[in-house]
Amino acid sequence: MISARIFILIMSIGSLLYGIIISGISDKHRKKPLPEEVSDVYNPERYQTYINFEADKKKLRNKYKAINLILDIVLIFSPVYEYIDNWFNGNPYLIFLTTYMIIWVISTIIETFASYEITFGLMEKYGLNKKDLKEFVKDEVINELMGLFITVALLELLTFIGEHMSEWTNGFSVGYKVSFLICLGIVAVLFIFFVVAQLIGYAVLKKQYTFTPLEDGELKDKINALQADSKKKVKRIYIYNESKKTTTKNAFLLKLFWHREFGIADNFINENAEDELLAVLSHEIGHLKHKKNILNFISYGEYVLLAIIVLLLMVNPEIILICTNWIRESFNITANNYYLIFIVFGHIIKPISFLSGLFSMYKSRWEEYEADRESVKNGYGEALITTFKTLSSDELVNVYPHPFIEFTEYDHPGMYQRIKAIREAMK
Ligand SMILES: [Zn+2]
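Above are the sequence and the zinc ion SMILES. Below is the predicted complex in structure-token form.
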């Protein structure tokens, strides 16, 4: 059997090659003329700017892809896992934490350089950046630390589950009934974890922007009229200071279990674009009114399937044990290094996670079309199209993505498909 190191290498190179093919498809597609629906998004001069922007973006992306591939190869074949294994004498929590921290520090340094180049090189060059260095540092620190904290906490939790599974199941011998109960327990603990993670995310969002409640008045009345026939209503409406970071006109509906709020970018208010704002809010209310459909039930089905697979593995753990042995032998270590286990398992389940990703993106795009139809219903179809067109030109958006790339990578419809669908709904 090939070494797990070679397996990881093959997978990394494979995904790099896939990226190159996709990028080639995209370049070729960009040479086609824009269809009528999106032909007036850019004027000729701005379109040239967009083309240059794409070219600069690609250069930057390729540079960091190359750096990351080299880093991956160095890490795969480095003896660092052996050293860590020796240092911590088989303590899986410290082994995981040390491995993760070493790799986190290296990749965060690279990512920060990339992010700096994107913000102050690329975005600045095309007038898309409004952050100053202080704002940039603040955002980077907050995002990196939050990501680190949540990932380490989650993976240490999974390590704990992995380490105790044999003990809880009395050496995997308790049968389906007890294994099922253990599964339920794990699901409950993970659920609590994600609730806490969401609350942290919410707190961070509130730190990154200043939210001011929308004052009573005509605008608020209009927003309330839009949601008059919705069963669920949003009472908290805030304006947030997007203008200190970007020029984006955006509005979102934030849902946290019992809590709902609208966030409206101040750029909407500053630029006096009430019709466009109401068009976007109608869209958000469309999301609010969404009734569960077959797509939602299929996605619940996915969770059930996942739980069944976990249950089957708990009762028949041989394949997992073979895998973890294989990883230990390949990396010449004596104790489980959960970092490596997560990486290898992540690669093994890639075909499944790819398919599941395709489905959830399809579902997400479907819900976007549905929400757009709510805007059309309220008479804001034309305003919504105007908003999308201005936004696309302002932010140099690819308005005509290749259908395959849209299908595999977009969780919101591409502008061409989206505007076409709005026009059809308006008929
Ligand atoms: Zn939406």
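Residues 283, 287, 368, 371 surround zinc ion (CB under 6 Å).
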